């Protein structure tokens, strides 16, 4: 039995979420015209047009232009539907993957910040940590700090890694022990699903302080004294991260730095 139910433009607009001015425009170009008009000139839409309206909304949200949508609606066939929906399904899956990655990166920054604000500034704690996945870059040559970081970002991008992940630096254990000038020997991303290496599981001395990028040497002196005073021995390179950085403060001297070094009893 043919459905004779109908809706005026306001009701149809409220139900579909398509603005009335857009419905009038769609009528003008023949994309979605009302099923009939009353003697008073009012537009009336039927329930069967809701599906078409939903299709238009969905395709517009996917970034498909009005002309392309109209072309499909004008010539729609089962074959055209299969082709359109299959291509858009792949597009949707790709976008979902991108959005999940953005959410993952944002959550990493939130988790790092929440951990950082739990600790008193310049505090040093001994913690047992499980192994943590990271995406590790190559050994750094004698480049400047910025050049080395940019080189790592390029390396990550070439390997299909999202460069939005939180950045970390590895500082050589011997340089810390010998009180040499400290430079990053490798960079890494805190990447949950794109890892090529791990921070090892074990007992760590964890230090939270404040400094700008590349100005953390004096913090390592404090950490080394703490380790020595507590009869501990360093058994790994240091991992340096900035849980609170340019994303959360304008003053680089207020960046929160986190330094982790695996230790063992002497």
UniProtKB/TrEMBL annotation:
<dbReference type="GO" id="GO:0003700">
    <property type="term" value="F:DNA-binding transcription factor activity"/>
</dbReference>
<keyword id="KW-0678">Repressor</keyword>
<feature type="domain" description="HTH merR-type">
    <location>
        <begin position="6"/>
        <end position="75"/>
    </location>
</feature>
<keyword id="KW-0804">Transcription</keyword>
<protein>
    <submittedName>
        <fullName>MerR family transcriptional regulator</fullName>
    </submittedName>
</protein>
<keyword id="KW-0805">Transcription regulation</keyword>
<dbReference type="InterPro" id="IPR000551">
    <property type="entry name" value="MerR-type_HTH_dom"/>
</dbReference>
<dbReference type="InterPro" id="IPR009061">
    <property type="entry name" value="DNA-bd_dom_put_sf"/>
</dbReference>
<dbReference type="GO" id="GO:0003677">
    <property type="term" value="F:DNA binding"/>
</dbReference>
<keyword id="KW-0238">DNA-binding</keyword>
<dbReference type="InterPro" id="IPR011256">
    <property type="entry name" value="Reg_factor_effector_dom_sf"/>
</dbReference>
<dbReference type="Pfam" id="PF13411">
    <property type="entry name" value="MerR_1"/>
</dbReference>
<dbReference type="InterPro" id="IPR047057">
    <property type="entry name" value="MerR_fam"/>
</dbReference>
């Amino acid at each position: 039995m043919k459905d004779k139910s109908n809706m005026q433009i306001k009701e149809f607009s409220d139900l579909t979420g398509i603005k009335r001015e857009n419905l009038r425009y769609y009528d003008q170009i023949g994309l979605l015209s009302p099923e009939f008009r009353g003697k008073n000139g009012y537009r009336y839409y039927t329930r069967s047009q809701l599906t078409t309206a939903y299709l238009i909304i969905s395709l517009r949200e996917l970034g498909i232009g009005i002309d392309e949508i109209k072309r499909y609606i004008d010539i729609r066939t089962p074959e055209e539907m299969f082709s359109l929906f299959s291509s858009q399904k792949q597009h949707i899956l790709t976008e979902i993957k991108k959005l999940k990655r953005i959410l993952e990166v944002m959550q990493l920054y939130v988790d790092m910040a929440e951990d950082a604000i739990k600790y008193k500034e310049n505090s040093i704690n001994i913690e047992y940590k499980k192994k943590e996945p990271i995406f590790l870059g190559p050994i750094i040559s004698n480049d400047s700090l910025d050049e080395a970081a940019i080189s790592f970002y390029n390396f990550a991008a070439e390997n299909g890694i999202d460069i939005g992940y939180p950045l970390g630096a590895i500082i050589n254990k011997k340089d810390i022990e010998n009180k040499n000038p400290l430079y990053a020997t490798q960079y890494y991303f805190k990447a949950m699903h794109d890892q090529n290496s791990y921070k090892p599981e074990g007992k760590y001395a964890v230090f939270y302080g404040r400094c700008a990028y590349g100005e953390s040497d004096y913090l390592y002196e404090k950490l080394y004294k703490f380790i020595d005073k507590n009869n501990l021995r360093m058994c790994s390179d240091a991992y340096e991260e900035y849980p609170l950085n340019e994303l959360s403060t304008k003053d680089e001297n207020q960046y929160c730095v986190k330094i982790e070094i695996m230790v063992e009893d002497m």
